[in-house]
Amino acid sequence: MRTSRTGGEEGGGGSPPPSSRSTSSFDIWRTLALLTGAVLVVVAGYLGFNRTDVPASGQALQAPAGAPVDDRPDLDRLIGVYEEKTTTSRDPLDHRTMGRLYLARADLTGDIASFEMARQAFSEARTLYSEDVEALSLEARAAFSLHDFADASTLIDQWIELDPDSI
After folding, report:
1. Is 145 helix (H, G, I), strand (E, B) or coil?
2. In this structure, what CATH number is given to the domain that contains residue 82?
3. Which residues sit opposite 9 in a β-bridge?
């Protein structure tokens, strides 16, 4: 057998070389650090998922107190203006804009009715101008947001048929 630098025999039994003793204390500290990190992740996850300010399913989300002021009042005002305007307008751009406003409110609040109203506005825009690719793509997005995947897929197919270069 060959003799190692430490004076012990390589490959034989006996006590481990001195360097492995320091590695084992390093392994203990590393294990403790990993366990501490894992505990911190679990605690942070529990505290993050156990929030009481999250509304029950189906309710619209509201900004928490102290959150930055959003444009919700302006958005609601614009929605009111366009709701009135689109009752008499035959301009597809007005209906598309109305749909975009509903979609913005739906994205902001999570309100399902706003997604449905956006979808209806985009559909009306496409009724007024059948080749409105933007209204078609936005209607597909609203359908997807409502989990109407079959209709979203149909709308996307129509979109590709109308404008294959846009994809």
Report:
1. helix
2. 1.25.40.10
3. 3
pTM beyond 0.70: no
Cα distance between the two ends of the chain:
71
Residue 149 has pLDDT above 60, yes or no: yes
Assigned domain for 162 exists = yes
* C-alpha to C-alpha distance for 10 and 29, rounded to whole angstroms: 28
Asked whether residue 60 is assigned to any structural domain, the reply reads no
* In a domain? residue 18: no
What's residue 85's pLDDT?
92
d(CA 132, CA 128): 9
As for how many domains the chain has, the answer is 1
Give the tens place of pLDDT for each residue, 133-142.
Answer: 999 999 999 9
pLDDT tier at 35 (50, 70, 90 boundaries)?
confident
Q: Which domain holds residue 142?
A: 73-166
